[in-house]
Sequence to fold (449 residues):
Amino acid sequence: MNEYINKVLTEVEKKNINEPEYLQAVREVLCSVEHLVEKHPEYEKLAILERMVEPERIISFRVPWVNDNGEVIVNRGYRIQFSSLIGPYKGGLRFHPTVNQSIMKFLGFEQIFTNALTGLPIGGGKGGSDFDPKGKSDNEIMRFCQSFMTELYRHIGQDVDVPAGDIGVGGREIGYLFGQYKRIKDAYEGGVLTGKSVCYGGSLGRTEATGYGLIFYTREMLKAHNESLTGKTVTISGSGNVAIYACEKAQEYGANVVAMSDSNGCIYDKNGIDITLIKQIKEVERGRIKDYLKVHPDAEYMIREDEDSPIWNIKADIALPCATQNEVTLNSAKKLVNNGLLAIAEGANMPCKQEATDYFLEHGVLVGPAKAANAGGVATSAIEMSQNSMRYYYNFNEVIEKLDCIMVNIFNACKDNAEKYGCSGNYVAGANLAAFEKLAEAMKCQGVV
Ligand code: NDP
Ligand code: 2IT
Fold:
């Protein structure tokens, strides 16, 4: 490996020994930009790599709130303001019990590259809390969001840092967060959060954007290899925002989506997933995917027993991991490849363990990396910000057309950069190279800051 990269990696590993997800994300990027670093000897003198991996600011705070039983609960909140090189910090908030500094930093780090790939003026950040929304009442969610924002508000702003949703944070939570921000600031700063409901400033198409964008990217990737989605068997992990709209769009393109999951298990319906029912269960009732069997008793339910999700045992042409990080292990990758997998495109952030990604690439599977393939969500957030600034709204088709165009450009950037640096067809490397070069150039322009 290049000596400079090796030196930076060793230093990062030493400094962040207790942050495995963050180290995983950094290793993946640095190991794929070797040719770029060799082409630019000035990177070392300017400490480009060292600055790229170090967040500009890490904010951590107490979030006290009162549950319905009158008990006081204390959670921990975070906002990682990773990079403001090309725009205000931008990225989602995750509410999940597994949230910790390592998860926040890996997500913030990935976000700066994703956002650079969109071609839009957004820097990178991420935030959230170890709060678990599961089983909480609406009032508890509201009180938690209000307490969270009572601290967060001083760190954000429409030209400073613009949060949005992620796991456990959807339209309902963004509404409560926005209401509290507006109350504290006594001003209507519409662009301070994205993923807002369309009735008070949200963008049409933002709900669908990540899932639809993932399918637009997959369509382009398949097209480049003379393939298409039509008639393909698809499995999609997760059954949240990204998974639902990926399923909807894949079905529109004529794919047969046969399985979806949640953290407890997966359903297999060889007749094709009933997406209207999934929306009812997940978006309206906030239920479990197992409830699918109440309406379709002929479908199969498989419980998840260990880190290998049973969904990856199902034979598929295309796999779309849309749940969480490291959900595709080497073991799962081997099963997918044995079953003849053609392509995998990542809706979730870092869903494949490094060994799994390597295995796919070694076995000729097309890999659409998260930084590129799931960029449609944040890109549409940027379109929401621009509508808020213009005080004007696009119609649904206008937003989706812009999203489609952005995803085509992102795929082409991955393809062209992979070719340019001698790893044709490796879109994982292509995405990292394209985004890294753009950020490094911006860093060079702005001096040592
Ligand atoms: P949601 O909260 O809407 O859905 C998350 C889904 O993933 C649920 O089905 C959930 O199951 C499952 N899941 C969550 N954690 C785990 C876990 N530890 N193990 C197994 N399954 C799990 O989130 P989103 O759909 O918004 O996000 C999904 C992924 O997509 C995340 O990686 C996120 O970072 C990424 N992403 C999201 C974007 C967005 O715009 N929302 C944009 C780009 C990326 P359960 O209900 O059982 O917890
Ligand atoms: O991971 C992501 O890109 C998101 N959760 C969406 C971020 C955003 O600001 O829309």
User: Anything to note?
Assistant: DSSP finds 18 helices and twelve strands in the chain. Residues 165-168, 210, 238-243, 262-264, 322-324, 327, 347-349, 374, 377 surround NDP (ligand 1) (CB under 6 Å). The longest helix spans residues 396-420. The longest strand covers residues 72-83.
